[in-house]
Amino acid sequence: MLKIGTRGSHLATTQAGHVRDDLGAVGHPAELKIVVTPGDLSQAPVERIGVGVFTSALRDALFNGEVDVAVHSFKDLPTAYEPRSYLIVPKREDNREALIARDGLTLAELPEGARVGTSAPRRISQLRAMRPDLDIRPLRGNIERRMGYVESGELDAIMLAYAGLVRGGYGDRATQIFDPHEFIPAPAQGALAVECRVDDAAGREAIAKLIDDTATVEARAERTVLAVLEAGCTAPVAATARATENGIELRAGVFALDGSRSLVENVQGTDPEEIGRRTAEALLERGAADVMK
């Protein structure tokens, strides 16, 4: 039986549970094994400690042989090639951004000076561009804890990935779901990365059955933008790709944290990495490096 490594949060175990069930459905029984990471023991915002503490702990467990498969939110993985890993992308969840606000309010309906929780620079910068009057507060904790800040009245609203809400069974809590071209999500948001050791033939055979071609192409295009820009997963960089019968449509942007500047490019083509590279190079030519500072 395959051992699937996952963090212990409700969202992480739900995501890994879907992978476990999908593997079982294609003839590869699996079970979850909780991996405790240093990030789980910290109260600091993710942007301060870095999402790498979560992903690296899972990868350590994988490469040390404690687990056979690791499941990550793909947007949290570094873009650098990992030669020890065989990685696939299964079917993707909705990549849009969601607002959870008191009294069912939308972003436009929030009162002036409303307190909105998010620690992601990409979300902060786009929110400030749309609503410079907002009082944006740092946000930490699992989905349930974050939603609790709105329920208690400590915050007027929070921003989250809609995929996490849906996977956690909280999709109906969103008071607004943004068009990804209006509020551009993180590269590979909504996509999972499932990996095993590259020398594990049985593991490769098992997870290869879960590959989704559309999700793979879209995520590759989006993450290539991040890689060429040499930006981390918490940088104010956003990208959303859509695979069609005629190729791939990619929209990506770089945003100043104070909301004062935004650079957005739209590119079409057929090769995901070539499109991602062209998009990133166009952003760099327009001054993306300075904007990201």
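Next protein, fold it too.
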Amino acid sequence: MAHTLPNAGALAGCKVIDLSRVLGGPYCTQILADHGADVLKIEPPGGDETRGWGPPFLGETASYFVGVNRNKDGMTLDLSQPAGQELLRHLLADADVLVENFKPGTLEKWGLGYEDLKAAFPALIHCRVSGFGSDGPLGGLPGYDACAQAMCGLMSVNGDADGEATRVGLPVVDMVTGLNAAVAILLALNERTRSGLGQFLDITLYDCALSLLHPHAPNYFYSGKVPQRSGNAHPNIAPYETLPTASGPIFLAVGNNRQFAMLAQTLDAPALAEDARYATNADRLRHRQSLRDDLSALLARHEAAALADQLLRAGVPAAAVQTVDQALAHPHTRHRGMVLEQGDYKGVGSPIKLSRTPATLRKLPPDLAPPAGQD
């Protein structure tokens, strides 16, 4: 990587070729791009399919695409053709990282797999995001976020106790896969400073979905009991769930006895913390329903937002349940720089805050470019 000024971003001078589409890969490369990496997004002639995943649209481009492709340059390339393959090799000559989410075997078919490229570009870090990896019982099969949620147990523990298994309401597996891919790339870049060599990074939706099973996996390992759905209630902590107030639900996340005593004091019911049924977390779990009933009666006299603020300031984690528009408009959201605006563009800011080399908005998501290198 070339030497650059520190205020250009923590990854300034790092060149990334991004062949990925949809979400996991693009989210990974946007993280890198936000922090200064020079990311070239290469799309097939028809473009990343998420350009059409609307409405809503910004111009002719779906908001879905806009949300994960800022700070990137764009190019269109047909890698199934020799001219496209030749141009990609030219671009990789001075690249640090290649990110792709082709079905395993596709790039190999074109002579662009890791083993094909390693001889020519020994320092190249090749990150593949796939559903299941290239081998094993499910190797090479296509993977999607919702299917990973279903297959890996996430849906089985999400939803009401008496309801159906439910998909998490956002593509959590894709996004965590993108995060893990970004972490893997940073690890490999760090190791390369010692060895001078690149390596292959094998990041799958399947693995990442399984990694999210905390605390359900350890609970199962050490109890032998299959975890069940419990709605918003935590399997190990009480009270840790949504409860009704006079103005809508509030989430209480009471993690220890001191917080529970402060909750009781704030609700003008100090005797609650002295009740033997609620003396410890284990006691509160055993008497969860009576605790819920007692708290609901007390909360009925309060407004959710005001009480949540009062509890937070008293050291008790609590929050009114907000809608997306309310969360994005919250004063603290603005204070943290978590909404970016430039012209017609709006986006969620980077949650990764560095003091000297912060993330910046340098480029808007690229328009679909005309095909390159196809004579």
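About the second fold: The radius of gyration is 24 Å.
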